């Protein structure tokens, strides 16, 4: 059984080789699949599925890596808005966003009812995304100050009065603004102000350290496979695995300097 998100390439390949596959089924005298590949409406649906699963696969790939919850929701919102745009374009008979589907619809005189089926599927996708990513659970609500403490609307922030006062002090600090606008990451910035603004730093880090995807789990499983081969099946990998998946860079020179040198007697 192949995972659905892996079927984008499979469907694209099947659509590209549909004539060869049809010829193969003819040689095998397989009437069932031969009939399907001779049905223009069925092949049009195949073309659309190849396109939409390819787009979903691209989305899935873009979510890989150490994204925070803000970046994840931004990407998901963008894809949902694209779906709405595609629905509008389909209503105007504009199919250019689905290349295989558009090409096949130009070549064949296919029943336009297929477009209605595609629109229905896109509406279903929108509803599914809405269930998995409900707006009421959007981590950005009240937390935009974490993304940019120097431009956020303080009144809309999910902070106590004392924390809002601290945020005002922070947002007016030009020294910190220069640091924030440099290439420093959000987590590193909030850790750097922990001594001055411990309440804001702690609250920001509680949200930033949340796992937005299963990427770290998948990376860990891949590391286990690479480390614990059949020749090292009894190896204790706890410490090795931690080094393999951590994003921290050890300060080797500092670690060495803290160790006592072994002087020959």
Automatic annotation (TrEMBL):
InterPro entries: HATC_C_dom (IPR008906), RNaseH-like_sf (IPR012337)
Organism expressing this protein natively: Micrurus corallinus
Taxonomy, superkingdom: Eukaryota
Entries under Pfam families matching the protein: Dimer_Tnp_hAT
GO molecular function annotation: protein dimerization activity
Protein name according to UniProt: HAT C-terminal dimerisation domain-containing protein
SUPFAM superfamilies per the UniProt record, alphabetical: Ribonuclease H-like
Residue ranges of domain HAT C-terminal dimerisation in the record: 188-245
């Amino acid at each position: 059984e192949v995972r659905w998100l892996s079927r984008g390439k499979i469907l694209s390949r099947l659509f590209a080789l549909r004539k060869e596959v049809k010829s193969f089924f003819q040689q095998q005298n397989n009437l069932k699949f031969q009939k399907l590949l001779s049905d223009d409406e069925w092949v049009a649906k195949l073309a659309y599925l190849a396109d939409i699963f390819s787009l979903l696969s691209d989305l899935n790939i873009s979510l890989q890596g150490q994204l925070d919850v803000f970046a994840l929701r931004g990407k998901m919102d963008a894809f949902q808005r694209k779906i709405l745009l595609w629905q509008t374009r389909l209503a105007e008979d504009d199919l250019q966003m689905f290349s295989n589907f558009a090409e096949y619809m130009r070549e064949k005189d296919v029943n336009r009812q297929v477009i209605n089926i595609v629109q229905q599927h896109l509406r279903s996708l929108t509803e599914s995304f809405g269930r998995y990513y409900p707006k009421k659970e959007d981590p950005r609500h009240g937390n935009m100050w974490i993304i940019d403490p120097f431009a956020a609307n303080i009144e809309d922030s999910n902070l106590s009065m004392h924390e809002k006062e601290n945020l005002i002090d922070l947002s007016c600090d030009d020294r910190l603004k220069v640091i924030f606008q440099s290439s420093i990451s959000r987590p590193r910035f909030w850790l750097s102000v922990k001594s001055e603004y411990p309440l804001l730093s702690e609250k920001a880090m509680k949200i930033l350290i949340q796992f937005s995807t299963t990427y770290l789990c998948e990376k860990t499983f891949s590391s286990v496979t690479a480390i614990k081969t059949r020749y090292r099946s009894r190896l204790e990998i706890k410490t090795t695995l931690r080094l393999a998946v951590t994003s921290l860079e050890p300060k080797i020179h500092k670690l060495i300097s803290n160790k006592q040198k072994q002087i020959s007697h």
